[in-house]
UniProtKB/TrEMBL annotation:
Entry keyword annotation includes DNA-binding: yes
Source lineage: Bacteria, Bacillati, Actinomycetota, Actinomycetes, Bifidobacteriales
Keywords in alphabetical order: DNA-binding, Repressor, Transcription, Transcription regulation
SUPFAM superfamilies, per database record: lambda repressor-like DNA-binding domains, Periplasmic binding protein-like I
A molecular function GO annotation: DNA binding
Region of interest (Disordered), ranges: 1-24
Classification via InterPro entries: HTH_LacI, LacI/GalR-like_sensor, Lambda_DNA-bd_dom_sf, Peripla_BP_I
Protein name stated in the entry: LacI family DNA-binding transcriptional regulator
């Protein structure tokens, strides 16, 4: 479990004389350097609305803060107001999953922009580590917790999270009244099929996953909606299920080819990669013989295939950003908390070279 530790309040601004470093910097030091009172420094630091501080005095305070390297004791401030400037993020394994690690990146950048620090616990799905991480977050008086998973699915929220403002990211709990921020799987599936429709394709296969998930049902529904809007009859003989891995794409390739489809939407980029391999083994070329669309935009795969794969972007970075925004809305407006709502984030198409225009 990787939980970032918070410094002891007594040493938060410690600048001990080790290796030539300065000793502790206090508000009093800043006030002396700026030629102002301690109360003026405090008003500037806390952005007190309506405070009558001259531009020159404010500028001197900010300059002194920068030159002295003063850092406020955020934990002590948090205890005084009932919550800290820290947000906890509990993840199962997204910290070790390259494309899904963007959730952390987005959450961290949005937290910084709003004056908060993100504390991360990567539990690898271990329930005991998860419980301990949440308890440690609460001991440090976090403002709220983001609970995230590396792939989109329904969960049962840990009971410890009922004691703190929580937002779910890339997952949802149908039995809890918390905000969930998830990919819009329906619109993503629709966008995948629409890329082929816009290129003139009418006989479009759909390779789905055998794993039960919102992605499996949502993307299929979006594919069917795109066909219906284009006046293309749904054809069950063009729809297949396979394992959501490269091997699944390889196994289903022959059946897809036998349908006479000119294009195919794959459940994800790994399935598309397996389909590429199997088609190449059969002497078929993409997109000349079959146009292929993936899903995820896992760039270590999609952008480096030959030809580069047209796909749909899973918005991991945006999930992290919106997760923090929704959490802080709930924190700052307590009356909003306790109401179940689902925020769906758009999955945009990424056009590359695997689609042939008919």
């Amino acid at each position: 479990m990787a939980v970032q530790r918070i410094a002891d309040p007594a040493s938060e601004n410690s600048r001990e004389r080790k290796n030539g470093k300065r000793s502790s910097v206090t508000l009093k030091d800043v006030a002396a350097a700026a030629g102002t009172s301690v109360s003026t420094v405090s008003l500037v630091m806390n952005h007190k609305p309506g405070a009558r501080i001259g531009k020159d005095a404010r500028a001197r305070v900010l300059k002194a803060i920068d030159e002295l390297g003063y850092r406020p004791n955020t934990l002590a401030q948090g205890l005084a107001r009932g919550r800290s400037n820290f947000i906890g993020l509990v993840a199962d394994s997204i910290a070790t999953t390259p494309f899904a690690g963007q959730i952390i990146h987005g959450a961290q950048e949005e937290a910084w922009k709003r004056g908060y620090v993100l504390l991360i616990a990567n539990t690898e799905g271990d329930r005991d580590l998860e419980r301990r991480a949440i308890e440690e977050f609460m001991e440090h008086n976090v403002s709220g917790v983001i609970y995230s998973t590396w792939y989109h699915h329904e969960i049962t929220m840990p009971p410890e999270l009922t004691q703190v403002t929580t937002v779910l990211v890339n997952c949802s709990d149908p039995n809890s009244e918390v905000t969930a921020v998830v990919p819009d799987e329906f619109r993503g599936g629709k966008a995948a099929a629409q890329m082929l429709i816009d290129a003139g394709h009418r006989r479009i296969a759909f390779v789905n996953s055998t794993s039960i998930s919102p992605a499996r049902t949502g993307r299929r529904a979006g594919y069917l909606a795109a066909l219906e809007e284009a006046g293309i009859p749904a054809d069950e003989s063009l729809m297949f299920d396979t394992m959501p891995y490269q091997e699944g794409g390889m196994r289903i390739a022959e059946q897809v080819v036998q349908t006479g489809a000119t294009g195919v939407c794959c459940h994800n980029d790994r399935v598309a990669m397996g389909l590429y391999d199997a088609l190449r083994d059969r002497g078929l070329r993409i997109p000349d013989d079959l146009s292929v669309v993936g899903f995820d935009n896992q760039e270590v795969i999609a952008a480096h295939m030959s030809p580069p794969l047209s796909t749909v972007q899973l918005p991991h970075y945006e999930l992290g950003v919106v997760g923090v925004k929704m959490l802080l809305e709930d924190v700052e407006s307590p009356d909003r908390a306790g109401f179940s709502r689902t925020i769906r984030i758009d999955c945009p198409p990424v056009m590359r070279d695997s689609i042939r225009r008919l």
